[in-house]
Every structure is written in C-alpha cells, then in structure tokens.
Specification:
Elements (H helix, E strand, L loop, with lengths): L1 H35 L6 H6 L31 H15 L3 H9 L13 E2 L3 H5 L11 E10 L8 E10 L4 H9 L6 E9 L10 H34 L27 H5 L12 H7 L3 H8 L10 H22 L8 H5 L6 H4 L5 H19 L8 H44 L8 H7 L1 H5 L17 H20 L3 H26 L12 H5 L2 H21 L7 H24 L6 H15 L1
Parallel strand pairs: 1-3
Antiparallel strand pairs: 2-3, 2-4
Helix pairs in contact: 3-4, 7-15, 11-14, 14-18, 14-21, 15-16, 15-18, 18-19, 18-21, 19-21, 19-23, 22-23
Length: 613
C-alpha cells in the first residue's frame, strides 16, 4: 500500500504550497493597496463575504479517490467467498495482473465535467462481462451500479452519481456497498448498490409476459384471418356483380368513428330503410365485425388522401401538434440520461428553443380538437327519439348515454390493457438489467395501481403513485368525454342550461388554475416547463378549458353548417392575430420571466392558455 501513502504525502505537500501561495498573494495585495492609498482588504475579509461552504468534498481532485482499489482494505463483516475473491483481486491488482487491471479498467471513476452535469461514472458493463473469455480470473465477475451522494463545497446541492464497478460475483449488493464505503472521501456516501443484470430476476417468471404474448398472438391471428376473409369476400362480390352496376352509397368505418363528421352527415334514408336489397352481397354482421381487423382495409383507409371531410383542416392541427409533442418529449426524456445536463442552459438562450420549452401547451391543441369532434359529431348524427313524459325521456337519455360511453370504453380499453402489460414487463426488465436508474416508478406502480388506469382516474392521484405518467392525457380526455356527452344530451332539450353549464365550467377552470398558481407561487419558466406537474399540469380541473372551447367551437360549426363567410381582409386579420398570439404564448414568457409578477402570471394563465389555444 505504498502507493496510497505516497499519494497522501504528495497531497499534503500540495496543500502546504497552496497555503504559502495564498499568503504571498495576500501580502502583495496589502502592499499594492497601501501604495495606492486605498482600503486594505485582509485575506479574512476576502472570504468572509462568501457563504460558508457546506461540509463535503473540499475540491474536485478528491473525487479521484472515490474508487481506488489499490488503497482499499477489506472491511469487516463480508462473507467468506466475497472476502476471499476480493482479497485475490486486490493482491493481483497490486501485482499488475492483466485480468485485475482489466477489472479495474472496466469500472467507472471520476473523469471530468461533474459541474457540467456528468453524473454517470459507469465504466463498461460489456468489458466486465468480456473478462469471462480470458479464463484468467479465479472467480466469476459481475457488474454493479452504486448510487453515490456527493456533497461538494462549490455546489449548493448534493449530487447523486452512478458509479459502475466490476467486482467478484460472489459479493452481494450489500457487501459491495460496505466495500466501497471504505474508499469514499469525506462528504460522499453510498445510497444503494445493485447487480446489473440482477441474477435473481428472470423475465420468464413474469405472468405479464405471457399475458402480453397471448394478446399479441390473438390479435395477429385475427388480423391474418380477417385479411384472408377480406380478400375472399371482395372476390365473391366482384364475381356476383360482373353483369350489374353497383352504386356505393357509403362505407362503414370499423375504426370506431361510426359517426361521420362530413358536412353532409349520415345518410338518414339509408339508415332508416328496412327493405332488404335484392341479390345483396353484403356480408353478415359477424363477418363485418371480423373485417374490422383486416390489414388490407385498414391500410387503405389510413393511406387514403381523397377526403371530402368538412373538418379536414383538423388533420393539419394534429400533425403540427404531434410534431411539437414529439420534439418536446424527445428533449425531455433524453435529458435525465445525458452527461452534459448544464448544456441545456446554453441551448435555452436560443430564441427558437423556446418553442421546445413551451411544449407543455402543445397537448391543449388535442383537447381542443377532441372537444370539436365530440360536439360536431354528436350534433350531426345523434338523433334522440321524443319521449311522452319527463321520466321516459330520462330513461331514454340514460340508455343512450350507457351505449355511447360503453362503446368508447370498449374501443379504448383493449389496446390500453395491452400497452399497460407491455409497459409493466419492459419497466421491470429495465429495472433489473439497465445500468441507468429508471426516472419513473412504473416497475412498482403498475403492479399496484394498474386498476386506476383501467378506470381512467389515475390523474386524480399523486404523480408519484401513477402508472405510465404519460397516460394522463387519456384519463383526462375520457373524463372530459363523459362530461361532454352528458351536456350534449342535456342541450337537446335544454340548450340554455347546457350552454350556461359550459360557461360555468370554463370560468371555474380558469379561476382554479389562477388560484393554484397564486397559492403555490408558480411562475412559468423555461428552466422548469413542467413545474407544479402534480398540481397544474395533469389535473383535469386545470386542463378543462381548451376542451370546453372545443365543444363550443364544434357546436358553432354544426350550427353554421361549416359555411361561415368572412371577408378576405377579416380572414387575413384573424390569421395575423392567431399567429401573433401563438408567438406571444410561446416566446413572451422567457423575455419577461425575470420581471413578471405573480399577478401578470395569473393573467397569462387566465387568458392566453385558455383562449388562444
């Protein structure tokens, strides 16, 4: 262990030289200041104005000793096998054996850029696993990832660092923790250690894996059978109509959008007729249900660009909003795993990057579109039969609501369950096999709180207990859809009551958002675009505004039959106002983030976010 003693002596000498240099500089400052007649500042006064450093690592150079096996001694309490293999590793490392040097080389250590956001000192798990082919180590090796909490005097907050080490596989995670604690400098501590991959974990023992496989197998089989039946049915139809002229009056969509939102609406005559067509070649209901899984028919509908939809402009909204969402989430999800996190501060100075930082508002566009389609389609196609009495009308409305709600629920729940199961399998696998710590707790939450997702109420609970955080939109949209159907049914008899209820909901959402922002002293910023996520971002009572505006817009489009005639000057003026408002919403927040008060912040939330989106 002479190398360790020599390093200690060298650091002591460097410390003495540093003290001498500081003394000489202080003396020089005193002489220069005295010669100029200015106030002489002593060395103690130079440092007294600074905040006292917190107890921790004095300088970054001390981090070089975080993992130095050559200076380590085995701590007491280790198991017999682990103690024997570690001792063999340390002895061969002192003798510069090739396999021991490779083990140390595969482990991580501090290199640079900690102050730039590099919190990953992982080394190479592949290099560690590759040692088995050398057949030199007298024991099996394994890779461990240890989470360290490092408190450095030059940083106001402690940093959590991931350290990867290649050590004997006979050691458990707790023994690795004890071994590493003996090498840490003052101000650093071990939070936890885990083996990667976890030898006690097997994906084949997970029931969710077989459930996901079964769902995927059944879905694949349905697609194959439906595609074959689709081809056979079309051939029979062609053969049956060789000498006849067939006039197609409309297609029946199997993707859930049975209510057309074209300007003409559904064909009432075709829907009311009960007379069977002569020599009809229409398939049975069971065949139609099976054909909903046909890959051929669905691909044709997805790739069809010849559309006469009155609301075709909404596709443009979807595309632009989708690009905005993808860009924002790409940066957001890559950020926790980057080794230069502080580079983000440089990028945020760019004016164009504010579009990414303000991506929290991109989802409001989808709520707006959903509100438009629900109101427009319902008013266009839903015709409720008249009732002879009040209670008869209530019963009919309740039956109609149950049918509409159950249809949407069944259409969403099957793929939702599949995604939940796949997410559970992948999250648990990554937890036990990835060198990175999971930024979410899906591996735990999805096992215990999956039922909240199936009921679409997961946004009513804290985000720390949420499975698939990104599914908050689907939960809110389902809740808004339920509320919208109730109000739209009410509007068929009591239009003023429904309209008044919508306005009350809109004002209540705005006031609630402003009150929460004021109470939590929340100021939107580029640095924290998703600040107050659990209070503001994912809660339905703060996200209801754009959906209500969409409902009102959809009702207006139906009332005007999508034929609002405006002068060209007014149209161009509307475009200018829209893009100006959008630019203000996206960029103005950063330009005034240092000067805006909470009152201006509330005004911003109550106006721009609710009305211009």
């Amino acid at each position: 262990m002479a190398g360790g003693d020599g390093g200690l002596a060298l650091r002591l000498e460097v410390s003495r030289v540093h003290q001498v240099v500081r003394g000489l500089l202080a003396l020089l400052c005193v002489r220069v200041a005295a010669g100029n007649g200015s106030h002489v500042v002593g060395l103690h006064e130079l440092y007294s104005s600074r905040a006292p450093p917190t107890k921790g690592v004095a300088h970054l150079a001390a981090l070089l000793d975080v993992y130095q096996p050559r200076s380590l001694r085995l701590p007491p309490g280790l198991g017999l096998d682990c103690s024997r293999d570690l001792d063999s590793f340390l002895v061969h490392l002192a003798n510069s054996s090739e396999w021991a040097e490779r083990m140390w080389d595969a482990s991580g250590r501090y290199s640079s850029q900690l102050l730039w956001g590099n919190n990953f000192w992982l080394g190479s798990i592949t290099q560690c696993q590759d040692l088995a082919r050398l057949q030199y180590p007298p024991f099996q090796v394994h890779f461990f990832v240890t989470s360290l909490l490092i408190n450095i005097s030059v940083i106001p907050q402690a940093r959590q660092v991931s350290l990867g080490v290649c050590l004997p596989s006979s050691c458990s995670a707790s023994e690795v923790t004890s071994f590493l604690e003996s090498s840490l400098p003052s101000g650093a501590s071990v939070l936890r250690s885990r083996a990667v991959p976890d030898p006690d974990y097997s994906v084949w023992t997970q029931p969710a894996l077989y459930l996901a496989g079964s769902i995927a197998a059944v879905a694949t089989l349905l697609v194959l059978i439906a595609s074959v039946v689709d081809v056979v049915t079309k051939r029979h139809k062609i053969a049956a109509t060789t000498n006849k002229t067939t006039v197609q009056t409309g297609d029946t969509e199997c993707n859930g959008n049975n209510l057309s939102y074209t300007s003409k609406g559904p064909d009432a005559d075709d829907a009311m007729t009960n007379t069977p067509k002569e020599n009809s070649t229409e398939p049975s209901k069971s065949i139609k249900l099976l054909l909903c899984f046909s890959a051929i028919s669905n691909l044709k509908k997805l790739c069809n660009i010849n559309s006469s939809e009155a609301l075709a402009c909404l596709h443009g909204f979807r595309v632009l909003s989708l690009v905005w969402v993808i860009a924002g989430h790409s940066c957001m999800f890559a950020y926790p795993f980057s080794d230069n996190k502080d580079f983000r501060r440089m990028v945020e100075r760019d004016f164009l990057f504010q579009s990414i930082s303000s991506g929290a508002f991109s989802v409001d566009t989808f709520f707006f579109i959903s509100g438009i389609l629900v109101a427009y389609v319902f008013r266009k196609a839903a015709v409720l039969p008249a009732a002879s009495c009040f209670w008869g009308g209530v019963r009919r409305q309740a039956v109609h609501f149950a049918g509409v709600f159950s249809y949407r629920y069944c259409r969403l729940i099957l793929p939702y369950v599949f995604v939940l199961v796949v997410n559970q399998v992948s999250a648990l696998w990554l937890r036990h096999n990835s060198v990175f710590d999971s930024p979410t707790l899906d591996y735990y939450n999805c096992q215990h709180y999956w039922w909240r997702n199936l009921l679409f109420i997961n946004t009513l609970f804290p985000v720390k207990d949420m499975c698939m955080i990104w599914s908050w939109y689907l939960a809110n949209d389902m809740q808004f859809y339920t509320l919208a159907i109730i109000l739209l049914m009410l509007s068929s008899r009591y239009l003023k009551v429904a309209a008044g209820s919508l306005m009350v909901l809109l004002v209540s959402s705005c006031v609630t958002t402003g009150f929460i922002s004021l109470h939590s002293e929340h100021v939107p910023s580029i640095e924290e675009p998703l600040g107050q996520f659990d209070r503001l971002y994912d809660k339905p009572w703060t996200r209801l505004g754009p959906y209500v505006v969409g409902l009102l817009t959809g009702w207006l489009l139906h009332h005007l039959d999508c034929k609002l005639q405006l002068h060209k000057v007014i149209t161009q003026l509307q475009h200018v106002l829209y893009y100006s408002a959008d630019d203000v919403q996206v960029h103005f927040i950063t330009l005034l983030k240092d000067y805006r008060t909470l009152a201006i912040n509330d005004l911003y939330l109550l106006t721009l976010r609710k009305h211009f989106l």
